[in-house]
Amino acid sequence: MERAELFDLIRETYGIEGDNPFEGSPDATVFRHTNNRKWFALVMEIKRQSLGISGEGTIDAVNLKCDYILIHSLLNEKGIYPAYHMNKAHWITVVLNECDRDRLMGLVDVSYELTKQKSKRTKKSPL
């Protein structure tokens, strides 16, 4: 998947536009919830070597929050790596052109759900 296609799918699915908060990295795009401003996806260009991928140059990748129980098994799948510049216990990095489109969007949805605002519990009145 190309970066533009991912941006379009996120816009269509969640109604969210990305923003570019890093002055030194204009290619880094963050997608965050509108109500709590929490990130659910960070799309960036990173050096191949940063993920342990052989070769020169850079790749487009996305950081996604993930259930820590699933991370270990996901790391065995093509295109999924330990998180780059994020907590590796709760985040993964997915190389855009190495991961299946449906799998990638499923992981974006997991990240979206894990970072959305929690509903407030109402206090029960004492009996």
What does this structure look like?
By secondary structure, the chain is of the alpha+beta class. The protein has one domain: Alpha-Beta Complex (Aspartate Aminotransferase, domain 1), CATH 3.90.1150. Helices cover 27% and strands 23% of the residues. The chain contains 3 helices and 5 strands. Strand 1 (29-32) and strand 2 (39-47) form a beta hairpin. The mean pLDDT is 91.
In short:
The protein has a single domain, classed as Aspartate Aminotransferase, domain 1.
Short descriptors:
127 residues; 3 helices; 5-stranded antiparallel beta sheet; globular; alpha+beta
Uncertain regions: pLDDT < 50 for 5+ in a row? Answer: none
Q: Strand fraction band?
A: 15-25%
Quickly give the CATH architecture.
Alpha-Beta Complex
Report the major sheet: 5 strands, antiparallel
What is the total number of structural domains? 1
Strand order of the largest sheet: 1-2-3-5-4
- CATH fold-level assignment: Aspartate Aminotransferase, domain 1
Oligomer: single chain
What's the count of strands? 5
Order of helices and strands: HEEEHEEH
Radius of gyration: 16 Å
SSE arrangement:
Blueprint: H1 3-14, E1 29-32, E2 39-47, E3 58-65, H2 68-74, E4 80-82, E5 91-95, H3 101-115
Antiparallel strand pairs: 1-2, 2-3, 3-5, 4-5
